[in-house]
Automatic annotation (TrEMBL):
Name listed for the protein in its UniProt record: DUF4442 domain-containing protein
Domain of life per record: Bacteria
Species of provenance: Marinobacter aromaticivorans
Coiled-coil region: none
Pfam families associated with the record: DUF4442
Length: 184
């Protein structure tokens, strides 16, 4: 795990120094941005092979923010809309991404509970965005450093490619500090 932790740490530093608004008009910045996102998706694929097989991808990540997508292709249910498990996948993994890249590899994210409220079928790809304020990140880190663990909740609006709000997710995470020792 030391190698993957190092890769996560380096990738986190890389993406925190990229410009998420970079376009092809700034080719070096655009390459840094897209290369960073490709590295994030590769790390996810190595850690959770189920994710890329089901066409999950992180589209944007920066300090305190992540946007992810799940493709409809390959994830249709029996009546042609997005399968319920695909909603869960796109709503769950970004919490881990935020944790790993905002807190660093010394903190392990664990999903404790998640609910999904389905509002309407999605007949396109679906995206979700999550954010944590700098104050929330600081509080999570401080709690985990002091007690070995911290809790946080992420609520997301899952949207289809037309901007329709198709589902709402509420995910309760726990973060564990690796190597934490209680004071004797």
């Amino acid at each position: 795990m030391a190698l993957i932790d190092s890769i996560i740490g380096v990738t986190g530093q890389w993406i925190s120094n990229t410009n998420p608004a970079a376009t092809l008009a700034q080719p070096v910045e655009w390459l840094k941005k897209t290369g960073g996102y490709a590295a994030v998706n590769r790390i996810i694929g190595l850690s959770i092979p189920f994710a890329p097989r089901n066409r999950f991808s992180v589209e944007e990540v920066r300090p305190g923010y992540v946007r992810a997508r799940i493709q409809l292709k390959g994830n249709k249910n029996h009546f042609g809309s997005l399968y319920a498990g695909a909603y869960f996948l796109v709503a769950e993994i970004p919490g881990g991404v935020l944790t790993l890249f905002d807190l660093g590899p010394a903190y392990t994210p664990i999903l404790k509970e998640m609910t999904l409220q389905f509002l309407q079928p999605a007949n396109t790809d679906v995206t979700v965005e999550f954010s944590l304020s700098p104050e929330n990140v600081t509080a999570i880190r401080a709690d985990a450093d002091a007690t070995g663990r911290a809790k946080f909740t992420l609520e997301g609006e899952l949207r289809d490619m037309h901007g329709n709000h198709v589902a709402t997710s509420i995910a309760h995470y726990r973060v564990r500090k690796k190597g934490f020792q209680t004071a004797a």
